[in-house]
Amino acid sequence: MGATMLRLHNTLTRTVEPIRPLVPGSVAMYSCGPTVYRPVHIGNLRSFLLADLIRRVLTWTGLEVRQVMNITDVGHMTDEVYDRGEDKMLLAAADEGLSPAEIAAKYEAAFHRDSDRIGILPAEVYPKASDHISPMIDLIGRLIERGHAYVDGGTVYYDVTTFPDYGQLSHNSLDQLRAGHRLDTVDHHKRHPADFLLWKAAGPRRVVRFDSPWGEGYPGWHIECSAMSIAYLGERFDIHTGGVDLAFPHHEDEIAQSEGALGHPVVSTWVHGDHLLFSGQKMAKSSGNVWTLDRLEEEGHHPLDFRYLCLTSRYRRQLRFSPDALAAAGKARSRLAAQLAEWGPPGRGPETPAAKEWEQRFRDAVLDDLDFPRAITVVWGVADDDAVSPAERAALLTDWDRVLGLGLGALAGEVASAQEQALPAEAAALLDERQAARASRDWAKSDRLRDSLHELGVEVSDTPEGTTWHWREG
Ligand SMILES: [Zn+2]
Predict the structure, then answer these.
(1) Which pLDDT tens digit goes with each residue over 339-376?
(2) What are phi and psi of 67, to 5 degrees?
(3) What is the CA(307)–ligand 1 centre distance, in A?
(4) How far is the CA of 148 from the centre of ligand 1 (A)?
(5) pTM of the entire structure?
(6) 372-383 and 390-404 are packed helices; what angle lies between their axes, rounded to 10 degrees?
(7) How far is the CA of 410 from the centre of ligand 1 (A)?
(8) Could you read off the pLDDT of 88-120 as tens digits, one per residue?
(9) Cα 125 to averaged position of ligand 1 atoms, centre (Å)
């Protein structure tokens, strides 16, 4: 008996656990989205892809998935940046001669386009931070009421010492955190160095500012994810995803906020994906090794080749990116599509024991904490297994691509029509003639025509779904 339920590594418990939805049949999932002030790079995209894979696997097993992904369009700032009363959105705006709202709209559209290009299915809702200032203010008010937050000169801080479980996600203790802060970089308005901002009083140069009970200002970054996840998914939901660098402090702070305000756990399973490395370094604008999808395409690759590359590494491991690895992934994807084209139309599904066995192996792999490298091995295994009919192989691969998201059906169609266009008129005429011979059950003529086609380099195969052809190899 194989697996039937997706199991994922929960950062909170550090174990791989089955996903048992709170509402049977329907999974609620929140994914930290992009900050929209520049194009996302492929390292960011790897993290968004993780959420897409979770969602596709859950859907494939018959569950409904409600996915919410936030769009951070109000700048969250590093300490040094907001000391200048500026933020990244604003700096980008100044650079490009656009307003902060125009910058956000421009890069939000670019983000959706990039997601689409690597086969990420759209979330149900993409709430924007700037549209949710009032639920954030409500949540901050509740934290002050419950004694988890304090106000200092129009700025509101979370008091981490009031939340005994602080550090549970990142496995830090408050003493370790205190020791980890260099005294000279600490904001001296904070009571504990790990206290964090909920609301920041606006400096005189701050353009994007909102009214609040504590004066004009703007929200901290972490509060938007607490406020918007609760607003859209309720006070308890199943899965929260993000990149590994968000576990601390972003998600640790989100837990302190949400649970501090509500008095109970909110998220069942926290899933974090590891970095993409390029030349041994994390891809980051500061290290100057950034690849966007535009660059990837300019260098002659297809965005879905990047998706294939991501599937060859487990999500909790670092993925080593290189142009060569990307090219190899592209070749592999094209070869799969060519096979699919060659197999002809898919049958109804796996019917023979051999095909069912492959089906179970694929299922076991993807349900086992998204073991896609193993799933890819299964894909190539069935591709090479002559014991499974072409129609069954096509059926399996077509169904699995609902999870893999590699666009194999479309690519196979392109391959097939390119082949057809490339078929010389002489061969096309012979194929038609052979089709007519088969229709009138003239097998001798049909065999003779097969031999003539063979001499022209064209191999035909007759399947229950009809006749297909491919160029003879070698
Ligand atoms: Zn977030």
Answers:
(1) 999 998 898 889 999 999 999 999 999 999 999 999 99
(2) -115, 130
(3) 23
(4) 20
(5) 0.86
(6) 160
(7) 34
(8) 777 777 778 888 888 899 999 999 999 999 999
(9) 14
